UniProtKB/TrEMBL annotation:
Keyword field contains Cytoplasm: yes
Pathway field: Amino-acid degradation; L-histidine degradation into L-glutamate; N-formimidoyl-L-glutamate from L-histidine: step 1/3
HAMAP family associated with the record: His_ammonia_lyase (MF_00229)
Record keyword Lyase present: yes
Principal EC category: lyase
Name of the protein: Histidine ammonia-lyase
Record's comment on post-translational modification: Contains an active site 4-methylidene-imidazol-5-one (MIO), which is formed autocatalytically by cyclization and dehydration of residues Cys-Ser-Gly.
Modification 2,3-didehydroalanine (Ser), positions: S144
């Protein structure tokens, strides 16, 4: 089993994916354990002083003005977890919760939170045991981090609330911890707050969306090339020298991918035949420009994710030295800050949703063109076997259009909104969790949209008799048919075919089939 070692300097995107999706085992480095202990000494020293320190000896949010006496501080930490575990709605996915917990552990291990080593180890133990807290859809405003989702996770560490066991059954968290020999934590000063205050949920969903979109953008290049081929279009617009004079990196990569797929095709270059065209339609000719812009958006989002993965997000944070009045025995201090605000992550989540909506939109336009006998250059109406008796893919395009319409609604930015909370103390929030949740839906829908284009384009190519498709295209058709995506013929129950196409794209098999012929795509 793969092991991820968590140190003090953050984690990588591949670490997040390994834990969230691959059930990798987690270990704490010696450096992390030492940093945890050192930061805890600072917190303990501050807790012993009479001066109030936010998060250590005060209330929280709008209640931060109350000084909490020592005998009530453990109760304060328990109470913040219990009261903040106030989510509602359906459960979020297991992989999201695992990413959320792992990224909170990443910050805890930075040595800037004041959490004891044993609490961090318990977090790792829960993840390693395959115990997944029940976290709900609604409850985060994305400022003070993902408070409610993280609170449900912290509740599990305390042995309270519900969690899903490794067998997929939801049971009381205390029972699951006992079965795996995990002792519930007794929270001390600052620890409850430190477990709740981060951008971990939205960041985890960003990392996973980027991984999925990387495959989907390659898939969209492939289906765009297949549609160009099926429409007897020209590949001259993909020439490297044309894209070199507008040097957006993503555009060049998309054009190169399409050109690689079309290498050796007998179907391209027939735009001057029976019904001459000076140029192909925008949805075909400008495919690299649209997909490329999305790729460049992903590059920016990836940069933001990498910075956030290297960050320690908490409020307050433990810092060494300085001139603050809140000093520990080693000269450390605890300082309030605003690093928990989710704006950097929220913005790129919304950017990606906009780009994904546009990619889905242009794919649908190509599909519609394949089905329209007036624009498909010799293909039968709706790619039907006996048009009129058969409807062909008419309603498959309806489904695709409905998905595109939903994508456009999901592209409305969540981060443009803000709603005040906590008696106006938290008067501007990021809505980053909401941006992440709708991006997950958008990525899911984009997969289906690309699957419908794949289904239509492969059928259309097979209906072009007498001309051979590119070797890569032929490999796609053969792999798709082997995967249960059926080819041309009389009308049949279509949903199973579309589901098979969806699974073919979602599992990365479309890209795999092409890369066996072309080598790695960009």
């Amino acid at each position: 089993m793969h092991t991820v070692v968590v140190g003090t300097s953050g984690v990588s995107a591949s670490d997040v994916l390994a834990v969230a999706r691959g059930a990798a085992r987690i270990e704490l480095s010696e450096e992390a354990v030492a940093a945890l202990a050192a930061a805890r000494e600072i917190v303990d020293a501050l807790a012993a002083k009479p001066d109030p320190v936010y998060g250590v000896s005060t209330g929280f949010g709008a209640l931060a003005t109350r000084h909490i006496s020592p005998e009530l501080r453990a109760q304060l930490q328990r109470n913040i977890v219990r009261s903040h575990a106030a989510g509602m709605g359906p459960r979020v996915e297991r992989e999201v919760v695992r990413a959320l917990m792992f990224l909170r552990l990443k910050t805890v291990c930075s040595g800037h939170t004041g959490v004891r080593p044993e609490v961090a180890q318990t977090m790792a133990d829960v993840l390693n045991a395959g115990i997944t807290p029940v976290v709900h859809e609604y409850g985060s405003l994305g400022c003070s981090g993902d408070l409610a989702p993280l609170s449900h996770c912290a509740l599990t560490l305390m042995g309270e609330g519900d969690a899903e066991g490794p067998d997929g059954v939801v049971r009381p968290a205390g029972e699951l911890l006992a079965e795996h020999g995990i002792q519930p934590v007794e929270l001390r000063e600052k620890e409850g707050l430190a477990l709740l205050n981060g951008t971990d949920g939205m960041l985890g969903m960003l990392v996973m969306a980027l991984a999925d979109l990387d495959t989907l953008y390659k898939s969209a290049d492939i289906t765009a090339a297949l549609s160009l081929e099926a429409l007897l279009g020209t590949d001259k617009v993909l020439a490297p020298e044309l894209h070199a004079i507008r040097p957006h990196p993503g555009q060049g990569a998309a054009a190169a991918n399409m050109l690689a797929v079309l290498q050796g095709s007998q179907l391209t270059g027939h735009h001057q035949d029976d019904a001459p065209r000076v140029q192909d339609a925008y949805s075909v000719r400008c495919a690299p420009q649209v997909a490329g812009a999305g790729r460049d958006t992903m590059a920016h989002a990836r940069l933001v994710a990498e910075r956030e993965l290297a960050s320690a997000i908490d409020n307050p944070v433990v810092l060494p030295g300085g001139t603050s009045q809140a000093f520990g025995s080693g000269g450390g201090r605890v300082e309030s800050n605003g690093n928990f605000h989710g704006a950097p992550v929220a913005y790129v989540l919304d950017f990606l949703a906009i780009a994904a909506a546009d990619l889905g939109s242009i794919a649908e336009r190509r599909t519609d063109r394949l089905l329209d006998k007036n624009r498909s250059h010799g293909l039968p109406p709706f790619l039907a076997d006996d048009a009129g008796v058969d409807s062909g893919l008419m309603i498959a395009q309806y489904t695709q259009a409905a998905l595109v319409s939903e994508m456009k609604r999901l592209a409305v930015p969540a981060s443009a909104d803000s709603i005040p909370s906590s008696a106006m103390q938290e008067d501007h929030v990021s809505m980053g969790w909401s941006a992440a949740r709708k991006l997950r839906t958008a990525v899911d829908n984009l997969t289906r949209i690309i699957a419908v284009e794949l289904y239509a384009a492969t059928r259309a190519i097979e209906l072009r008799e007498g001309l051979s498709p590119a070797p890569a295209s032929r490999a796609v058709i053969e792999a798709a048919r082997a995967a249960g995506v059926q080819g041309p013929g009389p009308d049949r129950f279509l949903a199973p075919d579309l589901a098979a196409a969806d699974a073919f794209v979602r599992g990365g098999h479309l890209v795999e089939a092409v890369e066996k012929v072309t080598g790695p795509l960009r």
